[in-house]
Protein 1
Amino acid sequence: MSNDDALERLTSWFQERLPSATDLRVENSSRVAFGHSAEMTTLTLAWRDGTEERREDLVLRLRPPFPGLLEPYDMARQFTILRALERTGVRGPAVLWLDATGEALGRPFYVMARVDGDVYETEIPAELDARPATIRRMTRALVEQLAAIHLVDLPATGLAALGDGRSYLDDQLDHWTAEMRRVQRGELPALERLLGELRERQPAPSERVTLVHGDPKPGNFAFVDGEVTGVFDWEMAGIGDPLADVGYLDLLWKTPGFFTSRPAALTADEAFAYYEELTGIPVRHREWYRAFQSFKTCVILLVGAALFEAGHSDDPRFGFMALGIRPYARRALRALGVDEDLPTGPVEPRPERFDEARARSADLAR
């Protein structure tokens, strides 16, 4: 489908949702090259309502082509979660419309309101680094939003219908093991050992079952003047053990490029003590939960590299994901008391595949 055809079909789709609108048009449409999962397009919807001119800034979140990085993608599930959160203290973007069929653009998507704020995914700009009090407030605000997610009243919002959540850790280990098996090209000694240690040492889960975001990295929060204005990327959200989210944030807290790594930020110990204060949920077994999230991260990186190797994506970022597997696995094994330096196995795409992707990109640029 050409860009012109997609724009025409999208405009018709919006018109069906706003039947009384006249002179409806899509303006300022721009693909957002950010992240590695669902595709996003920012746009402005303009129309006339009687004599009044109306404009609304929106974001369209489109399911990626199959196979994607985080299969299975369920856009209707994400839409349901975000719609339920509008009645809570969680600052998710307001969702407006859903196309679960994929008829309009060939793939399912939903439309949400654009959220004001800045996202700090890979670097900390100098102007922010010069405001240590703001950085410290940002880390507290991030913890407050994580707590808000875990304090959502599941029955009152209808989110209890998403599942019981008691077997969340087992289900997650089973899912990511299946994903690893699906794409592996040979023996993966480091990941196999890590999986075995996680199974053997698995602790009792948190006594509380909550909404779980699934990907609460600092780069999934937007900020204005130190306050969270938006929480994004709900692909992996579900009902389960809140300490899984804590473990993921704990794993990434000191990652260079995230504002949580700066000297002015709360330390991880301070952050999770604050989380306990806000939620009443004891933070336990941090080493295991960090290792658990390391395994999940390694498998996602493995899937990304496999997508590149198989030609499903020519984006070199997917190919280079494989380089992160060894350090994540090694650090997780050490945290679990395994000092043996095990090989990762065949995880990196072939050099020829990078050459092929570069050639395709050059052809498209001509």
Protein 2
Amino acid sequence: MLSLGFVALDKQQDRPYCTELAKRAGRFGISVCRFSPLDIDPQTEQVHGLVFQPETNEWTPAMFAIPPFLYDRCFYGSDDRSKKAKPIMQWLKQRPDVTFLGYGLPGKGEVYEALAAHPLLSAYIPPTSPLEGAEDVLHCLRRQQAIIAKPVHGSGGRGIFVMRKQGAALSSEDGWGQHQTIITRRNELERFVSSLNRCGRYVLQPLLRLSTPAGEPFDLRFLLQKNEAGEWRERARAVRVGRAGAWVANVGAGADIRPFSDWLDRLTIPRRAVVMDGIETIIRALPAYMEERFGPLFEIGLDLGVDDKGAVWILDVNSKPGRKIISVLPPEQQDCIYEAPLRYCLFLAREVNKR
């Protein structure tokens, strides 16, 4: 029986998703275990983790060898656990006896840079530049009324700031539109930028007009995964609508998930055609190009924005997407998403046996 390891820093992370996956694993001849990179004994290379028991549908503590196939769901912060876990995962990804479902993407800066070099996808990327000092903010604001600062390794809308001209000053708000700071002096801006950079690298982009007629921020989320033949397939699409007054539409920040078709039906027929052409162009070209530039992937969470003129923009490309949009899907489509990692694991196993 094949062994698939689900790796996360927090043992509770994605537990419902992993449990649903594990319930189906027996039909594919796969056993599923869960562990953190810090659960690996450096002396014996044995893992102190949890193994799913199909007889009881429960996870039980066990010691086992590092599984030959791993599903990386690790999200890193600036805490000590993250600093210890990240090099362990890098070590695992170098091992010839271990195959990952996907090897992940770099930070937003590198992803945007790669997309900007693509002959088709470059048209859908907002102008992006690194945030290194106060002059970078001032340079962007000379050309734009408002800009957004995004952490290179951020997720869930955390760490995002919007900066806007306000007379002779500028204002800064967090992504939820709750905490506003008025900056009137350059040294205040320098201190603000330094505080951001202490938390990690940032990029700057123009603030796009991505809101509903009611002033709610929204974006389009697409979940793409590989099938049992290693081919990319779209699994789900939905609209995420945030709170009026906020700048982000992340579910973790309280956004609603709504059916994509409801949103699309509200567009005029000419605008609908333009928007769908952009969406389909991106979905066809992006997954294979990301792998060409950055290595093997299994799944992608693709966030797109549509501005008030109907232009489509690539907002984020995530190789470790969330699963919240599954809730709008019928049961048979949900089942397909839970089975996808198992089917792809079998595909990888066949590829390994050919070597």
